[in-house]
Amino acid sequence: MSESILSPEHYFDAGIFRAEQQHIYRKLWIFAGIKQLLAEPDAFLTRTIGGVPVVIQNCGGELRAFENRCAHRQMPLQFEDYGQRRLACRYHGWVYGDDGTVRSIPQEDALYRYSAAERGQLCLQRFALRTVGNFVFVNLAASPAPLETQFTPELLAELEAISAHFSNDAAFARIPARYNWKLNWENVLDTNHVPYVHPRSFLPLLPGMTAAADAAVPARPPATDVSDLSFSTRSTYKLDAQAWHAMVERFGDTDNYYNFYLYPNINFISLAGYVFLIQQFDPVAPERTDVLFTLMVARERKRIPALPAILWGHMKGEKRVLDEDIILLERLQQSLHTQDTRARHGVYESRLVDSARIYARQIAGAA
Ligand code: FES
Ligand SMILES: [Fe+2]
User: How many other CB atoms are there within 10 angstroms of residue 249's CB atom?
Assistant: First the structure.
């Protein structure tokens, strides 16, 4: 048995939440969205990363990440999760160029009278952006560590290969939940919950999974580096054959359930290479998480007229499974109290133990 190094405070304390924002979310490469939804000129997406509002904008064909905050009075430039609109402020009409500098200010001479030096300072802060296949990652650090130090080259190659199969259309949902984001990260690492929490929804799709089989985890060396916390697995998936499967270019040729864990807050899965779901556990507050779903099918050989209905059907199915988790995780969050009681991990939970150890090192500012 190993008692968790994380105390209840790690799941509700505001100071610890701020340390996470600073040392994890404003330091690591954080997934922000998929390229498909940013393909057109002036297509954009917005996220809040480490407490900082961020906009990713298609600037003349190039994706760029900026702070989503007008240089005038700090108004967000783009409001929606996804959209298509030039980089302009709704408040007083300032318009920004592709490089994030202010291009035009209505009635500038009459109303503002900035000096040339002041005018030169008016621009949006830009952040580092990297794409891995169709995944878009952003890093808010002043000098970001290379993406390759956060994810192994093998994992990056896998992500690139699988995301090449994403279709051009995706469904997106933001689902609010009342628990700390780490409970959801730990929950997806802990596949032993599936037989108990999802006996009718998810378990029947995973024929290889029983509580006993899952507990027989091969021994691994303990993780020492942040890149050890992201990995992929595959298991057998019970595929329900659908007519539209013949109309897409699936990833792989095996009925696998592909599972990618991308620290700190992504669980990306594929159902037999036909359906892809990116789940992100987005920290909103110490006891609030938005679960962001981005759902796609494999790229189409020809147009699938029923695609919206197919995406909607899978979204409903995935939401049902998530709701089963949310019921438990919200209870777990509510049961945390200031008395120092801790999880007692069995050997099968070595991934949680690794994750907690490296996380604790990070929030202390040591890694
Ligand atoms: S706040 Fe953006 S133009 Fe005034
Ligand atoms: Fe679950």
Answer: 13
Where does 28-144 sit in CATH, by number?
A: 2.102.10.10
First to last CA, the chain: 26
% of the chain at pLDDT higher than 90: 93
Q: From the CA of 74, give the closest atom in ligand 1.
A: 1
Assigned CATH for 1-15+148-367: 3.90.380.10
List the residue whose alpha carbon is closest to atom 3 of ligand 1.
92
- For residue 92 and ligand 1, the question of a CB distance below 6 A is answered with yes
Tell me which of 55, 69, 75 to substitute to probe ligand 1's pocket, judged by most ligand atoms within 8 Å of the beta carbon: 75
SS3 at position 351: helix
Q: What is the DSSP letter of 136?
A: E
Q: What is the Å distance from ligand 2's center to 194 Cα? A: 6
**Domain locations in the chain?**
1-15+148-367, 28-144
264 upstream amide cis, omega within 30 of 0:
yes
Is the pTM for the entire model greater than 0.85?
Answer: yes
